[in-house]
Amino acid sequence: MLLRIEKLYPWPLNISKHLTVMNMRYNVNAKTFVIVRALKKLLTFPLVKCGFININVPVIIGDPKRVIIGKNVMLYNSILNTHSGFIIIEDHVTVLPNSIIVTGTHNFSKKNNERRNDYPKSGRNICIRRGAWIGSGAIILGNVTIGENSVVGAGSVVTKDVDPYCIVVGNPAKTIKKLPDPTTKNE
User: How many CB atoms within 10 Å of residue 141?
Assistant: First the structure.
């Protein structure tokens, strides 16, 4: 069973609406200002215990309705960009802190604001299959599928599909090991 993220997290950060308004008013450091303002708002919730602050809420840039999450998913503080497609995270997936999942891209032949505003509105979906493990600081770029029970190493940059039952590391991520597939019998 897959749930939309707003049912899983009652107050995800959706800052994209504010960014557009803020960019018109404060051209310099507008994004930083909005993120700090959003985090201050978050800290009014009872998250501070014993002097530690633990924010395990993903920051969603784009439409939160484009994030679909399965059961028993561990999604720590990460950035999810849904401007150019859906992000589907199936059951039993772990996404460790500071990971970035980005559906978007831009037309780099254009200049200035034209480049910033020229991105595909759909077609760059990311699907993270059942049981996958995404290491801390990994970056997953649009239009890829992370295979079932695969592992993406910490700090890796995924630009192509990852086969099921594989470990990938590096920039760009490359397969370094195949994991045993329990559905196939050893002969």
Answer: 20
